[in-house]
């Protein structure tokens, strides 16, 4: 938890693999409820002044982005683009410290190959609650 908190505090960009995290921690709940829960869980990071999280979900329509009232950015990918690809593109596009939250082994490897850091979902919750 301490190491996770250290990484979260120092990342200039915090990318969250939306459905990977929500399905791991809220399986069995409707997707809308999972999304709302995950966005609410990210708000304490914004309140503490950590890197504002960007939660990326797979979309099935036009891409879109919005910022919730607490400062959490939420993105939906365009049809044909996965959240994984969007995350890797974002990591590759910056030289700043990036932290990606996912349990997806393939995405973890792709992010690391682009120079990003990765934390699993349980570690993220520890950093938020700790």
Structure, explained:
The structure is a single chain. 48% of the residues lie in helices and 24% in strands. By secondary structure, it is α/β, with parallel strands linked by helices. Strands 3-4-2-1-5-6 form a six-stranded mixed sheet, with helices on both faces. α5 (105-113) links the parallel β5 and β6 (117-119). α1 (2-10) crosses α6 (121-129) and α2 packs across α3 (31-47).
Secondary-structure topology with pairs:
Layout (H helix, E strand, L loop, with lengths): L1 H9 L2 E5 H9 L4 H17 L5 E9 L2 E4 L5 E6 L4 H10 L5 E4 L3 H9 L3 E3 L1 H9 L1
Parallel strand pairs: 1-2, 1-5, 2-4, 5-6
Antiparallel strand pairs: 3-4
Helix pairs in contact: 1-6, 2-3
């Amino acid at each position: 938890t301490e190491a996770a908190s250290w990484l979260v505090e120092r990342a200039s960009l915090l990318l969250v693999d939306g459905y990977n995290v929500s399905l791991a921690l809220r399986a069995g709940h409707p997707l809308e409820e999972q999304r709302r829960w995950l966005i609410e869980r990210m708000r304490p990071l914004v309140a503490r002044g950590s890197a504002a999280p960007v939660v990326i979900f797979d979309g099935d329509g036009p891409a879109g982005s919005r910022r919730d009232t607490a400062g959490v950015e939420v993105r939906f990918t365009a049809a044909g683009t996965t959240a994984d690809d969007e995350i890797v593109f974002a990591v590759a596009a910056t030289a700043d410290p990036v932290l990606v939250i996912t349990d997806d082994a393939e995405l973890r490897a792709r992010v690391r190959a682009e120079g990003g850091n990765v934390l699993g979902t349980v570690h993220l919750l520890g950093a938020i609650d700790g």
